[in-house]
Design a protein that fits this description.
By secondary structure, this protein is α/β, with parallel strands linked by helices. It has one domain: Spore Coat Polysaccharide Biosynthesis Protein SpsA, Chain A (Alpha-Beta Complex). It is built from ten helices and eleven strands. Strand 1, helix 1 and strand 2 form a beta-alpha-beta unit. Helix 4 packs across helix 6. The longest helix has 11 residues. The radius of gyration is 18 Å and the shape is globular. The N and C termini lie far apart (41 Å).
């Protein structure tokens, strides 16, 4: 726990995350890990459900973080995990900067944000950069099961890559407008998988996606946060696969099968 500001240069990205339920009492740990990084974002925003917001303002760990620069903002609980980006892209005063999404149950390495930002700037701010990327498979005109997709082992920018949003993912500024124009259409197509929705919109926009480092982020989970998660709900009920099937149409699958448009970075082996 430090006293220094948790934000840095006002010209770089904004980290946006959300929390809910009992995780409200542990989310400060995730924020502290970001604040301990070698490079700091221009802002960190925590979106809290309206019914928990007053409690959030009274919790001592969050009070201390607010004194150091954390922004607490009210979110619509019906948006579930989509809260981490939805309100951000709808607000012109926020969406003028690159959006960086993160999760409330992970401990981020000190190099996490610096790695994301360095690779993002190398790509001229025009590609999606994530700390963990997978390579989707297509067989017989269909996506192979999400659980079978291998991790990327390079930083190549490819339209066929699939980012794991909560590991830390940064988006081009122009993509904020794309998401804003989509509104809340995800509620009827991908209500519980913000990753599936965001990846499909990124892919449809023709954006390249790359990993920030050659090896994916070593995931470290904050103890006590996994009793009930959307990730378990999605995987246990094949929810992610079902939502991906609804989001990726034949033309999308054709692009994935070709994995076209790779540029830069380390080349796959």
């Amino acid at each position: 726990m430090g006293r220094r500001p948790i934000t840095g240069d006002g010209t770089n990205g904004v980290v946006s995350l959300t929390t809910y339920g009992r995780r409200l009492r542990t989310v400060h740990i995730a924020v502290e890990s970001i604040a301990a990084g070698h490079l700091l974002p221009s802002a960190i925003i925590l979106w809290v459900d309206a019914e928990q917001f007053e409690l959030a303002t009274r919790l001592p760990p969050l009070q201390r973080l607010r004194a150091r620069g954390l922004e607490l903002r009210v979110a619509d609980s019906e948006l579930r995990s989509h809260k981490k980006y939805f309100h951000f892209v709808q607000d012109p005063s926020l969406s003028a900067k690159p959006l960086v999404i993160a999760d409330d149950d992970l401990l981020y390495p000190r190099t996490w944000y610096a790695d994301l930002w360095d690779r993002f700037t190398q790509a001229n701010g025009s590609a999606v950069i994530s700390a963990w990327v997978k390579r989707p498979g297509v067989a017989d005109g269909r996506l192979t099961p999400y659980e079978s997709w291998p991790n990327a082992t390079d930083t190549t920018l490819m339209r066929g890559n699939y980012f794991m949003g909560g590991s830390g993912t940064i988006f081009p500024i122009a993509f904020n407008g794309t998401l804003a124009a989509e509104g809340d259409r995800f509620l009827s197509i991908a209500p519980t998988s913000d990753d599936a929705w965001l990846n499909s919109r990124t892919h449809r926009a023709g954006l390249l996606v790359g990993q920030s480092t050659s090896e994916s982020l070593p995931i470290r989970v904050i103890p006590g946060t996994q009793a009930r998660t959307l990730g378990r709900e999605n995987l246990g009920s094949s929810g992610t696969n079902w939502q991906l099937t609804r989001l990726y149409e034949s033309e999308d699958l054709s692009h994935l099968a070709r994995a076209d448009g790779s540029v830069g970075g380390d080349q796959p082996t």
